[in-house]
UniProtKB/TrEMBL annotation:
Residues 18-388 form the Major facilitator superfamily (MFS) profile domain. The keyword Transport does not apply. Keywords: Membrane, Transmembrane, Transmembrane helix. It comes from Acrocarpospora pleiomorpha. Pfam families: MFS_1. It is a multi-pass membrane protein. One of its GO terms (molecular function) is transmembrane transporter activity. This is MFS transporter. It comes from the Bacteria. InterPro entries: MFS, MFS-Transporter, MFS_dom, MFS_trans_sf.
Length: 389
């Protein structure tokens, strides 16, 4: 039965098949980038890929997303959530196959991975709007948690791919397997009718200060979180951990991340008051995790990898819930601005991290990440006070 994007949800608890829509799209779009990050050691020998160049590839992913984010947000209500997410999955699968079959140097990775970033910019507003308009507000924290579990789930799949596929068959086989895994999801996503475009009149003015606080704070937090996802396997290798072992640690962290994101989302549904302060507290724990990554021994580093999937990404379900609630009932305009600011952080973060590694060390880069994350927590604290007025 089609889901009406304009209407209220028929029940408080969303169906599992309905939640496949906002999970499958982001998952497919994350895979090209994070599979590249997980296999950077293996790919580096053939493609001459080092930490600085991995930062450029990661920045290209988010730069393409930034360019396409505005038209993506404009198209979503006009062609419908299902078609938008299906288009994103097909683009991501094309990115995976092009990396496997056509890329012969690190420079070739840049446009191939950028296609997945473009796909992500199409999928993200569609998935967020789907939850905001079709899931009961009392269950939106849970739904956002499930949606945001796509990223640690992609880390889980990429981590498993290292010892199970890439080690025996080569890194190109891992990209082919990922494309084969995601293509069938195009056929099983539920049908969703496109909603009519909203009239431009009668909208409340946007709180610019709150938009900037939420946008810049999230940009800082995403900058460090995406740097972690892009460089953690390479950093583990520099710390003496074999690539296959690092892949298994990332896979374990992915499991922990999936469970923790859903749990944090459920808890946010039950504790609706001041969700930004919950996000702030998780960010402070994230900053501490970055410090541990910077100073830890090999054993401590390995444990910190798993814990990081809770702290470094755990704030995002609560943040998305707080952002949607802060600008209700018309969150589209402010959230598009916030997404644009976030993309800037996503571009600058991994590129800056790679530069610090090249001129300094991984240790220095993790310490800088901790400082930036602490600043993000401060901005969330100020934003919480603004929303209380």
């Amino acid at each position: 039965m089609p889901v009406d994007e304009c209407g209220s949800p028929p029940s408080v608890r969303p169906r599992g098949r309905d939640l496949l829509l906002p999970v499958a799209g982001p998952l497919a779009c994350f895979l090209p980038l994070y599979l590249t990050a997980s296999l950077a050691f293996s790919m580096g020998r053939e493609l001459n890929l080092d930490a600085g160049r991995l930062g450029v590839v990661t920045g290209a992913y988010f730069a393409a997303g930034a360019v396409a984010s505005i038209p993506g947000g404009w198209l979503t209500p006009r062609i419908g959530y299902t078609r938008m997410i299906q288009a994103g999955i097909l683009l991501a699968a094309g990115s995976l196959l092009s990396i496997a079959l056509a890329v012969r140097s690190w420079a070739g990775l840049v446009p191939a991975v950028a296609v997945a970033g473009l796909a992500q910019s199409l999928v993200e507003p569609a998935a967020g709007a789907y939850i905001g308009t079709t899931v009961d507000r009392r269950r939106q924290g849970f739904a956002f948690g499930v949606k945001l579990a796509a990223l640690p789930l992609s880390s889980l799949l990429c981590g498993i791919a290292v010892p199970l596929v890439a080690a025996p068959l080569g890194w190109r086989a891992a990209f082919i397997a990922a494309a084969a895994l995601m293509l069938p999801t195009v056929l099983v996503t539920p049908t969703v009718r496109p909603r009519a475009a909203r009239p431009a009149t009668g909208r409340a003015p946007v709180n610019v200060a709150l938009v900037l606080l939420l946008g810049i704070g999230a940009a800082m937090a995403f900058a460090t979180a995406n740097s972690f996802s892009a460089f953690i396997v390479s950093s583990a290798g520099a710390n003496g951990i074999p690539e296959s072992t690092a892949g298994l640690l990332v896979a374990l962290g992915g499991v922990v991340g999936v469970v923790s994101r859903i749990y944090i989302g459920v808890r946010a549904d039950r504790a609706r008051r001041r969700p930004l302060l919950i996000a702030r507290n998780i960010l402070l724990a994230s900053a501490a995790t970055f410090v541990v990554l910077g100073i830890g021994s090999t054993t401590t580093f390995a444990v910190a990898i798993v814990i990081a999937f809770v702290t470094i990404w755990g704030w995002s379900p609560v943040y998305q819930l707080a952002s949607v609630s802060a600008f209700a009932p018309d969150p589209d305009r402010p959230l598009r601005i916030i997404v644009s600011v976030i993309f800037a952080g996503c571009i600058a973060g991994p590129m800056g991290f790679g530069w610090v590694v090249e001129v300094g060390s991984f240790q220095a880069a993790w310490f800088v990440s901790g400082a930036v994350t602490t600043l993000a927590a401060v901005l969330f604290t100020i934003a919480a006070r603004v929303t209380d007025r």
